[in-house]
Every structure is written in structure tokens, then in C-alpha cells.
Amino acid sequence: MGMFKRAGEIFQAKANKALDKAEKPDEMLDLSYEQMLQQITKVRQALATIAASRKRIELQEDQLQHSIDHLTDQARQALSQNREDLAKEALARKATAQSEIDDMAPQHQQLQEQEEKLTETLQALQARVNQFRTQKETMKAQYAAAQASASVNESVAGISDTFSNSGAALQRAQDKIEGMQARAGALDELLASGALEDVGGASDDIQKQLDEVSSSSQVNDELAQMKAELAAGGPAGSLPAAGGSGDGAATSDSSGTNGTSDGAGGNG
Q: Using alpha carbons only, what angle is made at residue 34 by residues 33 and 38, rounded to the nearest 5 degrees?
């Protein structure tokens, strides 16, 4: 029994928690307002029923009173015609009608009192319902504002989480952009300095031909310059004679050169 009781309590606790979660304040306020309107409708129906009963008794009293007045007139007419028996009968019927009116009086009074009480109750309920309706709309507006604020806070919290999670990605992207910018700047500097022309180790065919022409022209210019120096008697000893070596070779070359020069002068 203890286990079943505890299981029942757990089930009821979970059910209450589920109901609390599913319950919405604005819907509950509207439901309470509808229930109050239904109570007012019931009170109005009861008031209408009591008023109809009171009116029915009043109509009966009016009819009886009309009969009493008519019987009174008939009794007078019978006496005027010396018909005392008829006058007595008319008065007897009048007394019966009056007795019925007297019997209705307490019921009539009771219905009037009930009608007055229900009227006061209806007025009080109507005032309470009107007050509740105003409070209901105010509370619904507050609930809507609180719900919107909570939604905004949740959105802000989600954005904050997104920002915090994407911080590393932003940093990586920033580092990558800076690296690309640095590489682009370095390439611009290399292109401007011409260093990239030899980096690849190869150039196009036109550039090769231009380089070959420039190199050949430089060799030819240097060869022509040396010929001009030799022809003008410039530094010819820069080249060693064939077959000579050491100091003896240098002396022989020197004397030989002088003899040659002298011979050359004599021939001249």
C-alpha cells in the first residue's frame, strides 16, 4: 500500500508539473472571465424567473381585485332590486376572492424580496466582473510584455553564445587575412625589385635571345678594346711568351724584346 501511495503521489506531482508548464496565464484569465460571465447569466435567468413569478401573482391579484370590485357592484344592484339573496351570494364570492388575495400576499412579498436580493447580487457581480475584466486586460498586457522580454533575452543570450563560439573562427579568419595580406605585400615588393625574374630559373625565349646578344656584344667590345691597346703599344707584357718559365724566361724575354725593338728600329 505504501508503494502504491508513493507512486500515486509521484504521478500526481508529475501531472501537476506538466499542467503548470502547459498553463498559460492569459488563457486562464480569459477562462475565468468566461466563467464569471456564465455565473452572471445564471443569476439573470434566475432573476427573470422570479420576476415572471411575481408578475404572474400580481396579474392574478389584479384579476381577483377586479372580480371583487365587480361583485361589490353586483351586490349593490341586487339590494337595490330587493334581491338580498343575490347580494349575499355576491358578497360571499367577494370574500372568497379577497381570501385568495390575502393568501397570495406572503408569496408576493417573498418573491419581491428575492427579486431585490438577486438584483443587488447581480449588480455586485457585474461590478466585480467589470473590475476583473480591467485587471485581466492589464495582466494580459503585462504577461505579453514579460513574454516578449523573455524572448528577447533568450535571443540575446543565443547571440552571445554564438559570438563566444565564433570568436575562435573570427580570430582564425583574421590571421588568415593578415597572412594573405603579408604575402601579397611581399610579392609586390619582389615584383617591383625584379627579384622574381630569376626565382623561377627560366625565362621566355625572347629574353634568352636578348641575353645572348648582350653577352656577345660585350665580348666583341672587350676584344676590340684589347686589339686597340695592342696596336697602340699598350701593355703587351701581360701575356707570357710561349715556352719560357721562371726568371731566365723573364730575362730572355726582356733581352729578346729589346733586340727585336732595336732591329725593328734599324729596319725602319
A: 115
pLDDT of residue 264 exceeding 50? no
Q: How high is the pLDDT of residue 63? A: 94
Burial bucket for residue 108 (CB in 10 Å: 0-12, 13-18, 19+):
middle
CB burial string 138-175: b at 16+ within 10 A, e below? eeeeeeeeeeeeeeeeeeeeeeeeeeeeeeeeeeeeee
pTM: 0.46
71 CB neighbour count, 10 Å cutoff:
21
Helices (H), the chain: 2-22, 25-80, 84-193, 196-199, 205-231, 246-267
Instruction: Compute the distance between CA of residue 128 and CA of residue 36 in angstroms, rounded to an integer.
Output: 9
Average pLDDT in the chain: 75
Find the distance separating the first CA and the last CA of the chain, reported in whole Å: 153
Domain 25-155, second-level architecture: Orthogonal Bundle (1.10)
CA nearest neighbour of 57 among 122, 105, 95: 105
Instruction: Grade residue 93 by pLDDT with cuts at 50, 70 and 90.
Output: very high
| Better pLDDT: 42 or 166 | 42
Q: Residue 29 in contact with residue 139, Cβ under 8 Å? A: yes
Helix (H, G, I), strand (E, B) or coil at 148: helix
The rounded distance, in Å, linking the Cα atoms of 60 and 98 is: 12
Q: Where are the domains of the chain?
A: 25-155
Q: Which amino acid is at 132?
A: F
Alpha carbons 12 and 200: distance in angstroms, whole number: 82
| Segment 116-172, tens digit of pLDDT | 999 998 999 899 889 888 888 888 888 778 778 777 766 666 666 665 666 677 677
Report which DSSP code applies to 23: -
